[in-house]
Design goal:
231 residues, mainly beta, 2 domains, five-stranded antiparallel sheet, four-stranded mixed sheet
C-alpha cells in the first residue's frame, strides 16, 4: 500500500513538470502619469510550484509592443530541464514602457515559459488599464526688467567679476574709466595696461574674476545691465 501511494505521488509530481502557474500582479509608476512622464511597469511575478527547474540557467526577458492604445508586454521565462522540486520563488521587475500621449490605455501582460526541448507556452496573463493626462501648463507670473547696478570700486586694488553673458573686449569694457585704470589682470597673470596701449587679456569672459588697480574711487561704472525678476 505504501509503495502504491509513493508511485501515485511520483506520477502526480511528474505530471506537473513545467506547468507552474505564476501569479502576476501589475502596477505602473507614476500612479497618475502625464504626457511628459516616463512610465514604468512594476511586475510582481510569483511561481508557486516549480518542478523540473534548475535556476542556474533560468533567464527572464521582456518584450514591449504598442499598437494604438493597446500595450502588450510579453515576459519570456527560459528554464533548462532537470528533474527537481524547487521551492516557490518570486520576482519584482521594473519594465520601461515609455512616454505616451494623453489618453486611456490598456495593457495586456503575458507570461511565456520555455523548458528545454519544448515549445513555448503561455502560463499566465493579466490586464490593467491606465490614463495619461496632459501636462499642466506652467504659467510664469514674473516680470523681467533690466537695471543698471554700478560697481563700487575704491582707489588701489579691487577684485571684480564679469557677469555679462557675452564676451567683451577689455579695452571697450573699461573705455569709460580708462583714465583711472593703472592695470587689469586676469587669473593667469595676463595684463591690460591702458597707458601703454597693451591688451594681453583680450576679452572679458562670463563668470571669470579680474583684479584691477585704479587711481581713485569709481562709483558709476558697470559692464552691462542686470536682469531683475519681480512677481
Amino acid at each position: 500500500m505504501k509503495r502504491t501511494i509513493q508511485l501515485f505521488l511520483l506520477l502526480f509530481l511528474m505530471s506537473m513538470i513545467g506547468k507552474a502557474q505564476p501569479i502576476v500582479s501589475l502596477s505602473i509608476i507614476p500612479d497618475n502619469p502625464t504626457e511628459t512622464d516616463s512610465i514604468f511597469l512594476i511586475n510582481h511575478l510569483s511561481f508557486q510550484v516549480d518542478i523540473g527547474d534548475t535556476f542556474d540557467n533560468e533567464t527572464i526577458s521582456y518584450e514591449v509592443n504598442e499598437q494604438s492604445n493597446l500595450i502588450t508586454v510579453i515576459c519570456s521565462r527560459i528554464v533548462s530541464y532537470q528533474f527537481c522540486i524547487c521551492w516557490p520563488h518570486s520576482y519584482i521587475d521594473t519594465v520601461y514602457l515609455g512616454n505616451f500621449s494623453p489618453g486611456s490605455y490598456a495593457l495586456y501582460y503575458q507570461v511565456q515559459e520555455l523548458y528545454s526541448n519544448n515549445e513555448p507556452y503561455t502560463t499566465g496573463t493579466d490586464f490593467i488599464s491606465f490614463t495619461v493626462e496632459e501636462s499642466p501648463e506652467y504659467i510664469c507670473d514674473s516680470t523681467i526688467t533690466e537695471q543698471n547696478i554700478p560697481l563700487s570700486l575704491t582707489g588701489g586694488w579691487n577684485m571684480i567679476g564679469y557677469t555679462c553673458q557675452e564676451p567683451l573686449n577689455v579695452i571697450e569694457a573699461f573705455s569709460s574709466v580708462e583714465d583711472k585704470i593703472i592695470i587689469v589682470k586676469d587669473n593667469l597673470g595676463n595684463s591690460y595696461l591702458p597707458d601703454w596701449e597693451f591688451n594681453g587679456i583680450g576679452d572679458l569672459e562670463f563668470a571669470k574674476g579680474y583684479q584691477l588697480k585704479i587711481t581713485e574711487n569709481i562709483n558709476d561704472f558697470y559692464f552691462c545691465p542686470t536682469l531683475m525678476y519681480s512677481e
